[in-house]
Write a sequence for this structure.
């Protein structure tokens, strides 16, 4: 199991103050369980891991196999919660260089619909020109501009390149059961489709087909992913006492740190494969807690890389931060530092040591330096990177987020703030129905 250690926060907050949250955590857990809290129509994720059936997984795997049999490349078209979970899991589990290798055991997964970069889309469509590609069109609302725009380009190209019949086979929609353009198109074109449940918001949807299908296409074991999440669901259930409930302790600790003036939480990894786990986590916590003029700002760094950029700020900048480190206990490969007769770089003192030992000492040294510099440190130990442990990690952060949001007294399941930019963008683009807004916004330019 993954394990949490908050001891290096105790110079800043006390153990008693963390345990003082027990009643608030209990209330939050009951509100989640009984559906009596804010945003209670979006609690479908709560018992999702334990309710996923073998039939559902088999259906996902069968569809994944069709894509695996017919595609060299699969484009995941989605934004926010409709792509970050996939990318987090796929990148955590993939060989860092697979996409550059000629011999492949699974389609290469690439991403679109998460930006409006003309150069990005031009380069993507050019790259796909001689490729047998498929598309997963992922959008809960089915109307998100970034995703719809990319899908429009990809659908046309796929049909032209691969023919209508093959396109129908290798384009799959993951969207609402009834509403939205993605649903209408899927039904009209006869695409295989999967439903995103109404009661699961985008950022909590990685264990729905939103994440499970592309992760299966990439060749990873979705049964193990779900099993890990289901075990964490049990381990962090509402009847597990506070002292043993790691999600409860994490939620309480970060709220106490926030109360003590630590306004920014930096998620830290020492394994570059975890970069997108941090991106997923930033959306989960940022969209869930950043509202009503409150909420911890979720930031992330990759160490030791960013010790050479952000390390200075973290060590000596304004003391409003704390760190949560995801530490991977055992790496998947072995590589020793070689001896070198000339020793021009002076590194012979490391000869024969594992590279991971050097990394672990960087981690330990940084933890102590940052604590000395006034940065409380929470540590989450993941035994190794595999589907089961990543499943645990995903659910751990989800349930802790639900609890933490309720402690903060916000609705962790809405995101009203993301509409403001869309309204202005549509007004500036003269979208039908936005005539009055267009006039008003132009008057301000
Ligand atoms: O968490 C959320 O609900 C959002 O960030 C969405 O994930 C994001 O906006 C994508 O929305 P959709 O899946 O409707 O295209």
């Amino acid at each position: 199991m993954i394990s949490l250690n908050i001891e290096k926060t105790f110079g800043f907050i006390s153990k008693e103050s963390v345990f003082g949250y027990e009643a608030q955590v209990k209330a939050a857990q009951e509100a989640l369980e009984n559906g009596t809290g804010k945003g209670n129509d979006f609690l479908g994720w709560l018992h999702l891991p334990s309710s996923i059936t073998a039939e559902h997984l088999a259906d996902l795997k069968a569809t994944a196999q069709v894509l695996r049999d017919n595609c060299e490349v699969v484009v995941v078209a989605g934004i926010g919660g409709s792509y970050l979970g996939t990318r987090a899991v796929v990148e955590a589990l993939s060989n860092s260089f697979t996409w550059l290798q000629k011999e492949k055991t699974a389609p290469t997964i690439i991403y679109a619909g998460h930006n409006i970069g003309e150069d990005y889309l031009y380069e993507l469509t050019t790259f796909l020109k001689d490729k047998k590609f498929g598309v997963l069109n992922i959008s809960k609302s089915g109307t998100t501009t970034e995703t719809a725009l990319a899908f429009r380009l990809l659908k046309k190209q796929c049909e032209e390149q691969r023919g209508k019949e093959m396109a129908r086979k290798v384009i799959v929609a993951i969207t609402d059961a009834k509403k939205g353009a993605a649903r209408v198109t899927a039904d009209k074109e006869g695409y295989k489709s999967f439903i995103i449940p109404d009661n699961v918001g985008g950022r909590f949807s990685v264990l729905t087909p939103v994440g499970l299908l592309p992760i299966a296409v990439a060749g990873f074991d979705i049964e193990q992913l779900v099993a890990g999440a289901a075990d964490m669901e049990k381990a962090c259930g509402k009847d597990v006492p506070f002292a043993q409930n790691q999600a409860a302790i994490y939620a309480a600790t970060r709220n106490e740190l926030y109360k003590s003036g630590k306004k920014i939480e930096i998620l830290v990894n020492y394994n570059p494969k975890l970069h997108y786990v941090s991106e997923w986590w930033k959306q989960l916590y940022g969209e869930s807690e950043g509202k009503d003029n409150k909420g911890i700002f979720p930031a992330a760094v990759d160490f030791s890389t960013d010790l050479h950029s952000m390390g200075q700020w973290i060590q000596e900048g304004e003391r409003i931060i704390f760190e949560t480190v995801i530490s991977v206990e055992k790496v998947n490969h072995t590589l020793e530092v070689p001896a070198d007769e000339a020793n021009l770089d002076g590194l012979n003192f490391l000869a024969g040591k594992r590279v991971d030992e050097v990394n672990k000492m960087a981690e330990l040294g940084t933890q102590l330096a940052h604590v000395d510099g006034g940065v409380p440190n929470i540590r989450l130990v993941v035994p190794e990177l595999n589907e089961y442990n990543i499943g645990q990690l995903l659910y751990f952060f989800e349930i802790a987020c639900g609890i933490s949001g309720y402690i903060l007294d916000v609705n962790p399941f809405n995101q009203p703030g993301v509409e403001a930019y869309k309204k202005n963008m549509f007004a500036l683009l003269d979208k039908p129905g936005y005539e009055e807004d267009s006039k008003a916004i132009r008057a301000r330019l």
Observations:
- The domain at 3-38+226-408 is CATH 3.40.50.10490 (Rossmann fold).
- The radius of gyration is 23 Å.
- The pocket of 5-phosphoarabinonic acid is lined by residues 79-82, 139-141, 144, 147, 201-203, 287, 415 (CB under 6 Å).
- The first strand starts at residue 3 and ends at 5.
